[in-house]
Each structure stands twice: as structure tokens, then as C-alpha cells.
Amino acid sequence: MKGFIEINGNVYPAPDRGLNFLVVTTVDSARNANNEFVGQKVGRDQFKVENLTWFSLDAETWSRLLREFDNFVVMATIPNMVTNQRMTLEMYPGNRTAEPRDIDPDTMMPTRYTNCKVNIIDCGRAF
Known about the structure:
Elements: E1 5-7, E2 10-12, E3 20-24, E4 46-58, H1 59-67, E5 74-80, E6 85-103, E7 110-122
Antiparallel strand pairs: 1-2, 1-5, 3-4, 4-7, 5-6, 6-7
């Protein structure tokens, strides 16, 4: 089964809101004596997925997603807005945040989180 986003081959739900795809083109930023841009593109475009946000996730799903980043770099399969196809890239996470919503009275551990959010950033390595 394919998911909207896959991390290390594991399927996760589509985000609820706030999702932004970002394509970054790196250039060598050169200018000539007339201050005209004469730089060139360096390498391939890189991708960032900002604001992967889920309004509500059960604690197990959120924990499972966060544990994917234990080794920091993951294989992420995401939509590519440039080609309108799916792509798999090495990516690393930015900050991960969530708000505990429901607390188990016996364990005092959250059973559900709201506003679960993570950004994932292209490592830039070509395959």
C-alpha cells in the first residue's frame, strides 16, 4: 500500500494541513564587473517538506514516526511537485513538535497528541 508519505518504507497518514513543498536551487552566486548575474546552478535541485502537520495522532503512530529518525537520515518517499510523480530521497528531520491531548490516568502518559509537526530536508546526495 502506498501512502502520501513513506519513511523508511513505512506508510504514514497524509498531513491534515499546512504542508508546503519547497524546491531549492543552489547557485554559485557570481556577478561580473557590471553587477550582472553570471552564476550557474550547482548540482541538482533539493527538496524540503515544511509543516508536515497532523491535527491529531494517537501516541503510538506519532512515536513510531519519531522513532524513524533515530538514525537521523531516513529514506523518504514523497510527491515531487516538479515532475508530478513520487520520488525517494535521503532526508533528515527538522524540529519535531506536538501537544499532548489525552493522558492515561494510570500511566500518566499521553495517548493522543495534537498539532504534530515535522519538517524533512533533502540531504542532497544523488542516487
